[in-house]
TrEMBL record:
Transmembrane stretches, start-end: 14-35, 47-69, 81-100, 109-131, 137-160, 172-194, 214-235
Listed GO MF terms: cyclic-guanylate-specific phosphodiesterase activity
Name recorded for this polypeptide: Bifunctional diguanylate cyclase/phosphodiesterase
Location of the EAL domain: 540-789
Keywords on record: Membrane, Transmembrane, Transmembrane helix
Reaction equations catalysed: 3',3'-c-di-GMP + H2O = 5'-phosphoguanylyl(3'->5')guanosine + H(+)
Superkingdom of source: Bacteria
CDD domains named among the record's database cross-references: EAL, GGDEF
Length: 805
């Protein structure tokens, strides 16, 4: 050892150390690069490594030799150098092979280091022995041994560093360690040779000189190997135990997760946790060495299959795993590359069962596309299906039909029996509609009381119209709701594809327009879409806007039509709303009253008519009454009685001079409520008349049950009484029956003298009609009322004078 220090510190030039070190570093860097590069095949890697080491070893050796003994004229022993070069190359290749062997352990790494150290030292001493011939080379045994151990260790560390997955800059540090090896071994080998002055002493000392240097190298290498491999084995055992513990720890962890874990090399499964065994129904032995794609229904993506190459976490992939009994399990797979317990890279596949998530997603999707009350598809679901139907019908040329349905009278059920009953009704209606459909037909609820039916294929439009009739009929039977019989009807609009449109929106709009037409035609109707219908609706929309404006600007007016007693005296005036439109002229109530009814404008309009008519009537000095029509919507107002009372109070009109005309339809919607209202109004002194009697149901029960003051026989009957005996029989019966029930009878629509005399002759109490007086403006009516009052006063005076006389 002492010899080594002397050599390094006093017999060597610093410049030589530097040259050797720099060159060794360069060659070491190349050698490490060849060893670590994945670009080369194994054989190429080994050969390139061998070449780099041989060049570095020989160059370092000769550089050290010439700088150590510059005064000697050395010659290069060619065959020996060649042999040394071959041995050095062979041992470098052996060490590279040990390093690159698939099952790398500390032991193999140390063996690689020892092989390289042996190669370098052996070559150095072989050349030295050859150079000094015929003299015997004198050396320091302990120095040789130390150099061998140090060289083997440094080289072993270089390999260990290079192969360590945890190292931060493995190539750099491995290059430095290998450079040190390539420096230490030639320098150390040279340093182990004793100075010439000591050679004779050594020769005379049999202990040291009797060993051949090659034998010593081999022996020292053998000792180094035994020593280092012993340590390596010890470390290997510890590492193996640690790895086993780590493996068990990881397995426990892996088994404890909710996710299935697969460890793969390439596509081969090398390990799997408990969860994936449960998910696949395969035990670990069956799973190991199996091809990973075989576990899935659909082949995993290339990215997942090539799971190696990057430690990046790939985007999760959704696949179907083949579960026990070939059950398909929806899974989400995350792939990541990492060093497995053996230190080698492996792809880890985390397989997450997403059955519940999928079910939840499916449920959310279902909710998004379905109506929660009836479980029918909603507008979104409908539009998707309708688009498909249109596409199919476009491709195949078949016709389809779209039916827009809106319930009639649903609001009344909702308002009177409550929303719960309304919900039950909607469900039952949906069930009744469904019963009328074929499997291929499609029923959806758009919300409220609106439904849509799609008939995917129809031969002619009659198929759709016939179904529409069946749908009308299926609602005829009453619905049992909270112990009540409830009735609803339906208005149906029919659109035909592709005739009426080529998009879902267009066809739905056409069905909707046709449905509105059906409503306008009196509800409970079926209406087929026709071009121009939308123009009607637009016109109606414009009219509605105008009516709102006219109401707010007070542009409406009232005409008054007189009613006469059978003696010819004016008993009342009926207030009839009129709309003098600035552009359209006088719009008749037949056009705007139904519109006001549908839009709810009838409520302010009716109140305005009542207030205005009462105000006017209150100015008349006579006791002539004022008759005002009440619409069904007004009748549903909770505060109707209060409203009427306050108008009478405001205008100062006596209640007995107000006559409210109600129709049968108004009573039918809620008999109990209607009876309560009529009774209440009567109690407050207001008279109530049943209007339009003879049309509608003409239920005699109403006459009997309701405390009406009078009955107005509809003009459609009065029209016919002189030429239709049946019509007269009915009118005559109504007069007789009403009188028996102590009700007065008014005949409306009298246009001829014959009609008047017939009615007068049979005791009709009151007459109204164009023959006697048309509806007239307020001024005319007021003048007439005043005249009537004067006549009455004159008559009164005449009677009094007659009595006095
Ligand atoms: N809720 C409200 N309804 C109202 C109001 N104002 C009018 N109406 C209702 O509009 C309908 C049409 O009314 P109108 O065009 O005014 O017709 C009335 C009379 O002009 C008509 N009539 C009267 N006599 C004759 C006749 O001899 N021949 C003939 N062809 N028509 C005649 O009858 C209508 C009055 O009918 P009725 O109300 O049944 O007494 C109409 O239904 C009005 O009720 C309003 O403010 N509110």
């Amino acid at each position: 050892m002492e010899r080594l220090f002397t050599f390094l510190l006093s017999e060597q030039h610093a410049m030589s150390h530097l040259t050797v070190t720099v060159f060794a570093f360069l060659c070491g860097t190349f050698a490490i690069r060849f060893l670590a590069s994945a670009r080369f095949r194994l054989k190429t890697q080994i050969i390139l490594f061998g070449i780099a080491i041989t060049i570095a070893g020989l160059t370092s050796f000769f550089d050290t030799l010439w700088s150590s003994y510059p005064y000697l004229s050395w010659h290069i022993p060619e065959p020996t150098t060649a042999i040394a070069a071959v041995v050095m190359f062979a041992m470098a290749c052996v060490s590279a092979y040990f390093y690159l062997c698939p099952k790398r352990t500390i032991k193999t790494v140390i063996l690689a280091g020892c092989a390289l150290a042996f190669g370098l030292s052996f070559s150095a001493f072989t050349i030295l022995v050859s150079i000094v011939k015929p003299f015997v080379l004198a050396y320091d045994l302990s120095a040789v041994l130390s150099v061998m151990v140090l060289g083997s260790t440094l080289c072993g560390f270089a390999f260990w560093e290079l192969g360590s997955p945890a190292a931060s800059r493995p190539r750099f540090f491995a290059s430095i360690l290998l450079a040190l090896t390539l420096t230490v071994l030639p320098l150390g080998s040279m340093g182990s040779v004793l100075p010439f002055g000591e050679w004779m002493t050594v020769i005379q000392t049999p202990d040291s000189a009797s060993f051949s240097p090659i034998g010593v190298i081999a022996l020292s290498e053998f000792i180094a190997i035994i020593f280092l491999v012993g340590i390596a084995s010890f470390l290997d055992v510890r590492v193996a135990v640690a790895q086993q513990r780590e493996g068990e720890r990881i397995r426990h962890l892996a088994d404890g997760t909710f996710e299935g874990l697969l460890i793969c090399r390439g596509t081969e499964i090398i390990d799997a946790n408990q969860r994936i065994q449960e998910m696949t129904g395969l035990d670990l032995t069956t799973l190991r060495h199996r091809d990973m794609p075989d576990l899935f229904v659909t082949p995993p993506s290339q990215q997942m299959l090539s799971g190696g190459g990057s430690a990046a976490l790939f985007a999760p992939e959704q696949l179907e795993l083949i579960g026990p009994g070939k059950r398909r399990i929806p899974v989400e797979v995350l792939t990541r590359e990492m060093a497995y317990v053996d230190g080698q890279p492996a792809a880890v596949l985390a397989v997450r069962d997403i059955t519940e998530r999928k079910a939840a997603e499916e449920h959310i999707r279902y909710l998004a596309l379905h109506d929660s009350l009836t479980s029918l598809p909603n507008r979104r679901g409908l539009e998707m299906v309708l688009s498909q139907v249109i596409e199919t019908s476009r491709q195949s040329g078949v016709q389809s039909a779209i039916l827009g349905l809106d319930l009639d009278g649903f609001k009344a059920v909702n308002d009177t029996l409550g929303h719960h009953a309304g919900d039950i009704l909607l469900k039952e209606v949906a069930a009744r509609f469904q019963k009328q459909l074929r499997d291929s037909d499609y029923l959806a609820r758009l919300g409220g009381d609106e439904f849509i039916i799609i008939l995917r294929t129809i031969r002619t439009k009659d198929d759709a119209l016939q179904l529409a009739k069946r749908l009308l009929a299926c609602l005829w039977q009453p619905f049992k709701l909270s112990g009540h019989d409830a009735y609803v009807g339906v208005s149906i609009g029919v659109a035909i594809s592709p005739r009426d449109g080529d998009s879902a929106q267009m066809l739905l709009k056409c069905a909707d327009i046709a449905m509105y037409q059906a409503k306008l035609h009196g509800k409970g109707q079926v209406c087929e879409f026709a071009a121009g219908m939308d123009a009607d609706l637009r016109e109606r929309h414009d009219l509605e806007l105008d009516l709102r404006g006219a109401l707010s600007r007070g542009e409406l007016t009232i005409y008054y039509q007189p009613l006469f007693s059978s003696a010819g005296k004016i008993t009342a005036f009926e207030a009839l709303a009129r709309w003098p439109h600035p552009e359209r002229g006088m719009i008749p109530p037949d056009r705007f009253i139904p519109l006001a009814e549908e839009t709810g404008l009838i409520v302010p309009l009716g109140e305005w008519v009542l207030r205005k008519a009462c105000t006017v009537a209150a100015t008349w000095s006579s006791d002539i009454s004022i008759a005002v029509n009440l619409s069904p919507t007004q009748f549903q107002r909770i505060d109707l009685v209060e409203m009427v009372s306050s108008v009478l109070k405001e205008t100062g009109l006596e209640p007995c001079r107000l006559e409210l005309e109600v129709t049968e339809s108004l009573l039918m919607e809620d008999m109990e409520k209607a009876l309560a209202l009529v009774t209440d109004l009567r109690k407050r002194g207001v008279r109530v008349a049943l209007d339009d009697f003879g049309t509608g149901y003409s239920s005699l029960a109403y006459l009997h049950n309701f405390p009406f003051d009078k009955v107005k026989v509809d003009r459609t009957f009065i029209n016919k009484i002189t030429n239709d005996p049946n019509a007269w029989t009915i009118v005559e019966s109504i007069i007789v029956m009403s009188h028996k029930l102590k009700l007065r009878v008014t005949a409306e629509g009298i246009e001829t003298g014959a009609q008047l005399s017939l009615l007068q002759g049979h005791g009709c109490d009151e007459m109204q009609g164009f023959l006697l007086g048309r509806p007239m403006p307020e001024t005319d009516a007021s003048r007439m009322a005043e005249n009537e009052s004067k006549t009455a006063r004159k008559d009164h005076i005449t009677v009094v004078q007659d009595i006095n006389a």
